[in-house]
Amino acid sequence: MTRLVLRRTALLVPTLLGLSILLFLWVRALPGGPATALLGERATPEAVDRINALYGFDRPVLQQYTGYLGQLLQGNFGVSTRTGRPVLDEFLARFPATIELTILALVIAVGVGIPLGYLAARRQGSLVDSGTVVVSLLGVTIPVFFLAFLLKWLFAVQLGWFPSAGRQDPTMVATHPTGFYVLDGLLTREFDASWDAVMHLVLPALALGSIPLAIITRITRSSVLEVQGADYVRTARAKGLGRVRLRNRVILRNAMLPVSTTIGLQVGLLLSGAVLTETVFAYPGIGSFLAQAVFNLDYAVLQGFILIIAIVYAVVNLAVDVSYGLIDPRMRTR
Amino acid sequence: MKTFLRVAAPGAVLALALTGCAASDRDADAAQTETGGARDTFVFAASSDPASLDPAFANDGETFRVARQIFEGLVGTVPGTADPAPLLAESWDVADDGLEYTFHLKEGVSFHDGTDFDADAVCFNFDRWNNFTGVMQSESLSYYWQKVNGGFASSDVPGLDGTGKYESCEATDPATAVIRLASPLPELVSALSLPSFSMQSPTALEKYDADGVSGGEEAPVLPEYATAHPTGTGPYVFESWSPGEQVVLASNPDYWGETGQIKKIVFTVISDATARRQALQAGDIDGYDLVGPADVDALASAGFQIVNRDPFNVLYLAMNQANPELTDVRVRQAIAHAIDKKSLVAQTLPEGTEVATNFVPPAVDGWNADVPTYDYDPEKAKALLAEAGKSNLTIDFNYPTNVSRPYMPTPEQVFTAISADLAAVGITVNPVPEPWSPEYLDRMQGTPDHGIHLLGWTGDYNDTYNFIGVFFGAPANEWGFDDPALFKAIGDARYQADKEAQTAAYAAANAQIMELLPGIPLAHPVPSLAFKADIHGYPASPVQDEVYNVITIGD
């Protein structure tokens, strides 16, 4: 187990190094540059040159990269050209918002997906089953931003049931010791602020959770179907194991293995989906900031945010593999 | 099926409960305002965070919008116009040679931190701007000081080293500040209405290290003053800034003027234009800026208020004389006669937009009612082309894609309308669309390789040079002509010490430009804002000098 963790961590280094090189080349291949984005339509060539000199964009690419890498190794991700604040600060300021959103999206996906998939499998061929299959197909095929747009238009703009933008009602006075608004409200006993934060989360979380929900439903369904027909289940049943114990001990536990892997894989999907969802709902997380960074050609933010997201993703996946080992004894010996 | 219900029912109940609560919350809000529970918070959607809270380092609209509430300059504007008006300076005298400005200051004003506003504070600010060093001289920070003053006390950049017009500032008594210049700068008074030249508390600037902009190897990192402690004399004090989310300001109880009904301003950041409109429709915000022309009618018919600013911009069709097809003035005149500006404006630009005759909007002093004009006359256009031997003219038409500027909300539509007009007089148009930044801008301003093209400009303050000087003050790739007489006329007009003589000189220059016809001013599109029905008295200003203490909320 420890060896697994060590080996995976060691593998991370070349992966991230490669990613940093690719990112570095990619942002510099984007048309234009921060100078044109900063200075607008009457930028004199001299002014553009001076901005480029200021940020070091006029130096050879290799020299720029080694400088960047040197800074990275000291934990410095550079400074946003647009806001003048360190990239890491910008990331940390917005990360709680995105974590809050992805957790809720995942809760919706898992909380609805697993029971639905299980139900469909147990009633194979029924209306419930075919309905579930159709819905999960739809869930995967409808683009996230379109669903986000639809939800917002219907429930926020037309019906006014939910707010259309942001994390908190602008007129609400609330303190935020942790940056997780729902939790903050509970900690400071400002329950109305907590509730308001939940209301702001519902629509974006539904949009963001739609694809993972569909995937988890389908995987659960096929996995339960497979386990139901397995020899050991027949054996257990023949031995007279009770229905409830059979369901909980044998079928569910074994069927959950591929599902837990899938959940781990959804994290990447959620983080990429957050870019579109947060933009539609003007939700101030890392996703919408990243979208603005593309628009403003904010090199340092593009490179830094994607690198940090990659690190987070790798760590989450490692954690998933470890938990897999805890569920499945066969993994531990490797 | 029963099992399914068992799973689904709680979900449905929960959903109903959620929405039910939400709906009743909303109703409660609405009821509260209807029964006269005075709403004193004004929520305005900004398209981005301010770049900094220190207006000396500001040059974009969203930063100015916040700064206008917190800070005041020596000079303001007459409401609803671009004309200079007293603000922190009650009056000023300009010496005959245009080298000395004596500002008589308003007394009894103090900064938000209790520091007195006096002549020493004025000089402190001017000296601060002139002595910016290193990274603070970057055009992305001190853009306007560079542009107006022309340089710094000292600089590593040759073009900025000691080249400024500002010489010194002297506090002759607490209520009198004398600014001395090395050479005349007639637009100084107008320029001082820019938020960049706001008066800031010397105490706070020093205490929070306002000039501690670190940089060098990497991008500028803003100091604490610019991120958390902006201190001015304005009607609102800074309360908090959650980057990416909102900036909150509170009413200043010690303000020297009207504190007004609005006690709290929230600038909530919504970067997407559609999302801003929907936030207004959903009742989440009180108003927003840069309303898309396509949304104006829908919002108005849904009961929202549309407020227009007087335009302070120009959209033009430039005709590049480096292109041999366009060197003959008769060809340019033909193109001008071929374009039906009235229907162009009606079809492609926001309602209320005026057809342009000058390269400056009518709100600017040097605007001239008697410039040569070129009426829509396709027959005359054909005759002129025949005369010039260009009846089979083929010309590149460059236009930008994927961009919306305040003076040009939909470039593609403008291109289509003009192309049809040109085709009607027998001109063959070769469309050259390019992405706005950098390709389009680089080609127009950095190369001679273009034909006719669309571009424009939004002005900063009431100064003709701010338009025609930017366009025609010197030879430029964009226009491809060299006319020393015109360059000299514009340059001379800029340095007339006498305001009236200057206005006359600019008016003459505007006529000269329309005679030469380097391009065709098309229109001055109207920028619109949208508000909830109960927001009253929004002080729309052509130069966006909009301070919210005059707004009222109610039926």
From TrEMBL, chain A:
Keyword Transcription regulation: no
Superkingdom in the source lineage: Bacteria
Membrane topology: Multi-pass membrane protein
Subcellular location: Cell membrane
Cited Pfam families: BPD_transp_1, BPD_transp_1_N
All copies of domain ABC transmembrane type-1, residue ranges: 95-324
InterPro entries: BPD_transp_1_N (IPR045621), MetI-like (IPR000515), MetI-like_sf (IPR035906)
Keywords annotated in UniProt: Cell membrane, Membrane, Transmembrane, Transmembrane helix, Transport
Coiled-coil region list: none
Transmembrane segments: 101-121, 133-155, 197-216, 255-281, 301-327
CDD domains per record: TM_PBP2
Record family assignment: Belongs to the binding-protein-dependent transport system permease family.
Identification of the protein by name: ABC transporter permease
Organism the protein comes from: Cellulomonas chengniuliangii
UniProtKB/TrEMBL annotation, chain B:
Keyword Transport set for record: yes
Keyword flag Transport: yes
Solute-binding protein family domain mapped to chain residues: 84-475
InterPro entries according to UniProt: Peptide/Ni-bd, SBP_5, SBP_5_CS, SBP_5_dom
Subcellular location: Cell membrane
Superkingdom of source: Bacteria
Topology term for the membrane: Lipid-anchor
Cleaved signal peptide residues: 1-22
Coiled-coil region(s): none
Keywords of this entry: Signal, Transport
Chief location: membrane
Similarity remark: Belongs to the bacterial solute-binding protein 5 family.
Protein name, UniProt field: ABC transporter substrate-binding protein
